[in-house]
Design goal:
heterodimer, A: 367 residues, alpha/beta, Glutathione S-transferase Yfyf (Class Pi), Chain A, domain 2, six-stranded antiparallel beta sheet, B: 201 residues, Helicase, Ruva Protein, domain 3, Dna Topoisomerase Vi A Subunit, Chain: A, domain 2, four-stranded parallel beta sheet, two-stranded antiparallel ribbon
């Protein structure tokens, strides 16, 4: 499946444009701040129903305007499907496949998969566990739709349980039967999610290892571990044991919402001991492994969104990567760069490559 | 909104407190009322006042009523061994309109939802347990919303019932009448096939 046509109206810095895209490789070039990344983010929107960068929909509307629309025509074996995303201030987001609006956005997840490689990936290493959890959840949701449903349910039960604990704390009361009905629902969901995350890690690590070794010439041993409260104890008991603590603090202190993934290189935490270069290689290997993993697990090859990869890779590795993406193992690819000659030279004369230059808020095909 | 009269403004404010009424609709009501005969307005005001003064809640099932025991609970033709548990009085009316149910009701007045600050103690759950204890009830039908909060309320009551010899049932969940099968979500469709019924004409 590839994106054939892309329309923006009032999305981020763009007023209105429509592009015909190449089936294989599309490059967006232009100076800093012209909106190259916004094009990739629009494609990410059509896949994930939200921005890669800013989760507040209304803040993605062009300044001074009331709404934005992103529309994409996706094509597979000459069958076209239009995906529409419309956001209007103060209204519910409208997301459509063909003529039909989705009742739940979660139903769309997994229909078109994307993998974004961006300079802000560094947050995966530097930030708290929630960023890593969200990323891994995002990968799993791309091939396992019921996982996302269970996760949404878990978070809702958890929110009720936390609200109840807070009420107990504030009113200095406690009623165990009220808490029990939430615990009884939380336990099976947590166990299911834990099992899926665990199985994911086991399947994913060899794929990741292969990618990393390819990029680093095989001298380092990367891995990551999954940490969870459900690891070594029955979760029902664990919840009971921590009930007193939960009541004191007024929220749930144990559960899969506290899981973490620790990135390791040669058995040492990457965050503390990895060099800049090692961290960047680690991240790009992670993302490419994500790509490989989803290609293998779902019907379609994901769309690869490469935002400013010169940030992560040197010229030689980029050349290797670009040679790889031209092969059959990759589907459609979108690339941004500030230097138009660099990409042009890289893909010199290749038919399956389209280059767009962005200036004055309009992307134009230049080759 | 600039309203030239304080009296009108106050009336608008009052109407705007009603569910799904905004200030514009409220103003339309008020201006309409201004044109009516004083006697009509008197009737309207009386009807509103009577709501609080004359309506009572049935002592048994908490349905709205004009008497201490509502017509449904007082009707000896109905099945007094079955109670259908509902969220509010609107659900009683909806179920009565089906003409399919001949048992009694129990209006909880809401469902358990800690996020909205509603716990079991805010609902008529104790009253329900008392009825089951004292009234020789054989079956409880859960007819609450098919949401997490509705299910949690069912579950809470069900746990409280375990010491009594009473059958608990729940409204069947499945494909809605008039729905195309391909548009039904997986959970609904899954339930429908699991709880399929014998075909009848």
């Amino acid at each position: 499946m590839h994106l054939k046509k892309l329309n923006f109206i009032n999305f981020k810095n763009y007023e209105d444009f429509s592009l015909e895209l190449a089936e294989k490789i599309n490059c967006f070039v232009g100076y800093n701040g012209v909106g190259k990344t916004n094009v990739l983010d629009g494609i990410y929107y059509l896949s994930n129903c939200k921005s890669f960068f800013n989760p507040v929909d209304s803040q993605n509307i062009k300044e001074g305007e009331e709404f934005f629309v992103i529309e994409g025509v996706f094509s597979e074996e000459n069958q076209n499907e239009t995906i529409y995303c419309g956001v209007k201030k103060g209204r519910k987001k409208v997301f459509k496949k063909g003529k039909r609006s989705y009742e739940k956005l979660s139903e769309h997840i997994g229909y078109i998969n994307t993998v974004m490689i961006s300079p802000i990936d560094g947050n995966l290493i530097l930030e708290g566990s929630d960023v890593r959890r969200k990323y891994i959840d995002h990968i799993i949701s791309q091939y396992n739709p019921s996982y996302l449903q269970d996760l949404i349910k878990y978070n809702k039960v958890l929110a009720h349980r936390n609200a109840l604990l807070k009420q107990f704390k504030e009113s200095h009361t406690f009623e165990s039967s009220s808490l029990e009905v939430w615990d009884d629902q939380l336990v099976p969901l947590a166990e299911k999610i834990y099992a899926i995350r665990k199985a994911f890690i086991e399947g994913f690590i060899p794929v990741f290892d292969k990618r990393y070794k390819k990029l680093s010439n095989g001298l380092e041993a990367p891995t990551f571990t999954y940490q969870s409260h459900l690891e070594d104890e029955d979760f029902k008991n664990k919840l009971k044991e921590n009930q007193k603590k939960d009541r004191t603090v007024g929220y749930s202190t144990v559960g899969i919402h506290k899981d973490d993934y620790v990135f390791l290189l040669n058995d040492k935490p990457l965050k503390k001991f990895g060099s800049q270069g090692q961290q960047k290689t680690y991240l790009i290997a992670l993302k490419l492994a994500h790509y490989d993993f989803i290609s293998d697990k779902s019907f379609h090859k994901p769309i690869l969104l490469l935002d400013d990869i010169y940030d992560k890779l040197d010229e030689k590795r980029i050349k290797q990567l670009m040679e790889a993406v031209l092969q059959k193992s990759f589907g459609q690819v979108f690339i941004t760069d500030t230097d138009q000659n660099r990409l042009k030279n890289l893909f010199d004369g290749k038919e399956e490559v389209k280059v767009f230059q962005i200036a004055n808020e309009i992307p134009k095909a230049i080759g | 909104m600039n309203i030239p009269s304080k009296v009108v403004e106050q009336a608008v404010e009052e109407f705007a407190t009603l569910p799904s009424i905004g200030k514009r609709s409220a103003l339309r009501f008020v201006l309409h009322l201004l044109k009516q005969d004083p006697s009509d307005l008197e009737d309207l005001a009386q009807a509103i006042l009577k709501l609080k003064n004359d309506i009572i809640y049935c002592k048994s099932c908490s349905n709205i009523s004009d008497k201490e025991i509502c017509d449904i609970c007082a009707n000896l033709e109905r099945d007094h061994q079955t109670i259908c548990v509902v969220e509010d009085v609107r659900d009683v009316m909806a179920l009565e309109n089906t003409y399919q149910y001949k048992g009694l009701y129990h209006v909880l007045g809401g469902i358990i939802s800690p996020m909205d600050g509603v716990g079991p103690q805010d609902l008529k759950i104790e009253e329900l347990i008392t009825r089951i204890k004292t009234q020789n009830i054989k079956e409880i039908i859960f007819a609450l919303s098919a949401t997490m909060e509705g299910d949690t309320t069912n579950f809470y009551i069900y746990k409280r019932l375990k010491d009594f010899d009473v059958k608990a049932t729940v409204l069947s969940r499945g494909v809605a009448v008039g729905d195309e099968l391909s548009y039904a979500d997986e959970v609904t469709l899954g339930n429908s096939i699991k709880n399929r019924t014998v075909f009848e004409i």
